[in-house]
Amino acid sequence: MNKKIHSLAILTGLTLLGTNTAVLAAPVGNLDTNVTASFTEDKTPAVPLDPTDPTKPVKPERPGTTGPLSLDAVPTGIDFGTNELKAGQNLTLLAKPMKVTHQDDTQKEVPHYVQVTDKRGGRLGWKLTVRQTAQLKSTGGVDLTGAVMSLNKQTISSPSTEVAPTGFTGKLDLTPGSDVTVMTAAAGQGYLTWIQKYGSLIDDGSGKANVNDGVQLMVPSGAAQATKYTGSLVWTLNDTPA
Asked: What distances in angstroms separate CA 10 from CA 16, 17, 223, one per listed residue?
């Protein structure tokens, strides 16, 4: 009896060891499956927004540029008003406010601003510049020599939670005939809609009207004559990353 018991135990042990031996499967061939996904550009026109409340759309004063990377709004005009000359004194003029029209046709004074929308995939980046085409000139073609226009107290806002582009620091003086960068988006920045607002509205001292402390014109003593001066700015949006 003892010999039979020992023999069964040994055989059982051998059987258990055999179940732990791995058998490797060898591939006998393979076939490919192609996967495709195509996209088209978002052609929905961008809508200008209220710079003091970017959740509210406003009616455009004029159409912006088209395409998935667009310049939606810039000031259509900058007016420094009519000012009394003071002999022997430099003048620092503040611009009159912009006006926006809400969807219900109510108008609102706001600081000057620009708006860029990037709906391209990939968050590729962009750059916005402004150029004062030439020195301000009188109706007779005489330069307002030494006058400097500047943008000041910029802030950047958006209705989105994307990574913001970068603005400028402090006061940005415009140089006639030269492009000056006002806002840049490196790769990964500036996706969707972004507003750059210059300054805020303050009382002009009369208690009856406002001016914008973010858009200024410095006129040296003796440079201006008692006449009207005009000029222009050109805003350019580039798809070149900052």
From this structure: 10, 11, 114
Segment 90-101 mean pLDDT: 97
pTM: 0.86
Higher-pLDDT residue of 40, 1: 40
State how far the Cα of 4 lies from the Cα of 20, in Å rounded to an integer: 26
3-state secondary structure the chain: CHHHHHHHHHHHHHHHHHHCCCCCCCCCCCCCCCCCCCCCCCCCCCCCEECCEEEEEEECCCCCCCCCEEEEECCCCCCCCCCCCCCCCCEEEEECCEEEEECCCCEEEECCEEEEEECCCCCCCEEEEEEECCCCEECCCCECCCCEEEECCEEEECCCCCCCCECCCCCEECCCCCEEEEEEECCCCCCEEEEEEECCEEECCCCCCEEEEEEEEEECCCCCCCCCEECCEEEEEECCCC
Domain boundaries, the chain: 49-238
